[in-house]
Amino acid sequence: MPHRQALATGTAFALAAGLMWGLVFIVPLLLPQYPAALLSVGRYLAFGLIALPLAWLDRQRLRQLTRADWVEAAKLALVGNLLYYLCLAAAIQRAGGPLPTMIIGTLPVVIALASNRRDALRDGRLPWAQLLPSLLLIGAGIALVNQVELQHLRQQPQADLAGYALGAALGVGAVVCWTWYPLRNADWLRAHPDRSPSTWATAQGIATLPMALLGYAVFWAWHALGAPGSDAALALPFGPTPGRYIALMLAVGLLASWLGTLCWNEASQRLPTTLVGQLIVFETLAALGYAFVLRGQQPEALTLAGVALLVAGVVVGLRRRPTHPAAA
Question: 166 in a domain, yes or no?
Fold first, then answer.
């Protein structure tokens, strides 16, 4: 596939993934009565159940996966799915939407820095002088957007500073999970260019299902025993608003988990990891957009300026070409 076509197609898939992944930031705000653990296992239980009929339709290609492939899918599912969303949902519930969005917004910079050193032999390496302008623009955009959000947080008279600090720590944990996930996921996809990204997305859903079932059972048992930290008023299995809970879990399970993973796999198979890591910025932009729609507010001028810087940083990054060691 010509470079320009691969670049355009990969970017479009990354944009679609970001639009769907942004939905997961507002679910904890729509279900504030639900513990983060129940949101995480519920989302990925739905993902696994959705993957079952897809796996039956794709059973011939799934049979081609080796035991090592399934072990890798399980690792990706545990860290990039369950653990990541547990940290993210808990961070949003403790610190609100803006602070975790700010921290997750650093992912393009963190992944670009990690992959530029780690994957130089495979994807080529961008000289730091060429990578720096894009990273500075993205970093400045994130700083502007979140400066506005932090000002709003400071204006709250009953702000829980300890809760914000814990939310920040959990947000950092989510960043660690989702720095590891795209690097390892891209390793498998680039090493298996003959395999379908949709099959790999379905495989991760199947690998997630038993872990989500186990997590749900453990949470239920913990709650039934009245263990420390459990909410006696929480009505299981589906909580105080079962219809909304089930609908939102199915929505994010289908859109954010399976379809979002599929689109991200397509992008990862076409683009260098250094570049595709920067395109996670689409998730941050989508999350901010959805948050403003949920609030019923228009973004302030500084927020719009930050968004413009984020987009400019991505555009600058897309124009850079990695240099392969052999060419150098």
Answer: yes
